[in-house]
Design goal:
The protein is of the alpha/beta class and about 425 residues long. Helices cover about 35% and strands about 20% of the residues. The chain is built from 17 helices and 16 strands. The strands form four sheets. Strands 3-2-4-10-1-11-12 form a seven-stranded mixed sheet, with helices on both faces. The chain has a four-stranded parallel sheet with strand order 13-16-15-14, with helices on one face. A three-stranded antiparallel sheet has the order 5-9-8. β8 (about 175) and β9 (about 180-185) form a beta hairpin. α16 packs across α17 (about 415-425).
């Protein structure tokens, strides 16, 4: 029987993590697994719980997954990233069940992800449309017409280009939607936990809400309150309008001629950006320069985003002052150091607090769900509200900036749809 999931649905900065730390400290008999995309949040929670939560790591010849299994077998509470759970298997699930664990997920995860994105984090053996067509035509795989599960029909392909496809298909976590493979988070992992908490905001419009619904889970929402003595605790769900009132004076949304670029509802969507010719791209580049000049912003103030598809972001990154916060010699810096100096941040970024000094923001995208993902959930009986989903993505991205520290930000959103969604949200 599926368990009810508790969603702590509260605006960013409302004290969700503090409330979780107190819950862990007040329940020493409970085993916890805390997973987050933020490495600094792992340290924060570990420190806050007096290092009761252990982090799986490479040591004594063990892989991170093997060390996770070791810690689970010992009944230790654990803090780790979402990525480690990509390789959850039957042994992982059994150990979680036997340990009576409570799961705490910081941020709703992408429960349906493109296969090529997933394997890039693991073995890098990606699958093209031609690969998929060949495998279907030759009978190596088939696809369940109802669930869209990929079924492995061929001989074992260990070590081959198809080995990860075989593994995920046999784990029943590989879907074929349209002409692409997608990896879906195994629902049996969630069923193994005693209790589940998800820390997020605007959960109802997330893919994870769809995932839980189509897999037979129910969820209830709660909020966080700060008591008179300064302690954060859980409470009945309430709207975050009071917290939003505090944010309104901090956000200066540009209203001016440059917004005319995004008057059409589809403007700045991925397909719209893909269709822009030289003049269209030049107009956006000019708007970027103009806004930076208007705000008298230095490169170290700038944070901007658009899609990475079709290398569109590289065309905008070519605008002077929009690549790095200062001149750097890449060969003399580590990849992580270079990343922190960039002005560009992916619009769906979650796992970073490295940009909390950036105060001049350009949001050059109009967010829509990928049609394959939207249609997948529709086929399984769940409709995701695209406007609410787009709003959630945008608010999460804005929260990477200086506003998370309580500082004022300037915001250029040329897409009329995205700009109006944000204004309507701020106005309640």
């Amino acid at each position: 029987m599926n368990k009810t999931i508790t969603v702590v649905d509260s605006i960013m900065g409302s004290g969700k993590t503090n409330a979780i730390i107190d819950m862990i400290n007040n329940n020493p008999e409970t085993n916890y697994i805390y997973i987050t995309p933020y490495l600094d949040e792992i340290k924060r929670v570990a420190d806050g719980t007096h290092h009761r939560l252990k982090r799986p790591w490479y040591h004594d010849g063990l892989t991170k997954q093997e060390d996770l299994h070791r810690l689970l077998a010992l009944g230790k509470s654990i803090a780790t990233t979402h990525a480690l759970f990509l390789r959850a298997n039957a042994e992982t699930i059994q150990l979680i069940h036997e340990g009576g664990y409570t799961l705490i997920m910081d941020e709703a995860v992408g429960t349906l992800r493109e296969f090529n994105e997933v394997v890039e984090e693991m073995d890098g053996k990606q699958a093209t449309e031609d690969d998929i067509r060949l495998m279907l035509e030759s009978g190596i795989i088939s696809v369940n017409a109802e669930t869209l599960d990929v079924i492995w029909e061929g001989v074992t392909a260990e070590g081959s280009h198809y080995s990860e496809i075989e593994r995920l298909a046999k784990n029943k976590t590989l879907k074929c939607v349209g002409d692409k493979f997608y990896w879906e988070y195994p629902p049996d992992v969630f069923r193994a936990f005693e209790k589940i908490y998800v820390l997020t905001y605007l959960f109802d419009s997330s893919m994870m809400a769809g995932y839980f619904t189509v897999n037979g889970f129910e969820y209830e929402k709660i909020s966080v309150q700060k008591t008179e003595d300064g302690v954060f605790s859980f409470c009945e769900y309430v709207d975050s309008s009071v917290r939003k009132d505090d944010l309104i004076p901090l956000i200066n949304i540009y209203e001016g001629q440059q917004n005319e670029l995004g008057n059409a509802r589809s403007a700045f969507s991925i397909n719209w950006l893909k269709r822009q010719n030289g003049d269209g791209i030049k107009a956006i580049q000019n708007a970027m320069r103009s806004y930076k000049k208007r705000m008298k912003a230095k490169s170290s103030d700038i944070l901007w985003t658009t899609t990475k598809q079709y290398d569109i972001y590289k065309k905008f990154e070519a605008v002077y002052g929009f690549k790095y916060t200062k001149k750097i010699v890449e060969k003399e810096m580590t990849e992580d150091e270079i990343k922190k100096e960039r002005c560009f941040l992916a619009f769906n970024a979650r796992a970073t607090n490295d940009f909390d000094k950036r105060c001049t923001l350009l949001y050059l995208i109009n967010v829509y769900l990928q049609p394959d993902i939207r249609n997948y959930y529709l086929r399984r009986g769940f409709s995701i509200d695209e406007d609410r989903h787009a709003l959630s993505e945008m608010v999460q991205w804005i929260w990477r900036s200086a506003i998370r520290k309580g500082y004022n930000i300037n915001l250029f959103i040329p897409s009329s749809r995205m700009r109006n969604l944000l204004k309507q949200w701020l106005e309640g």
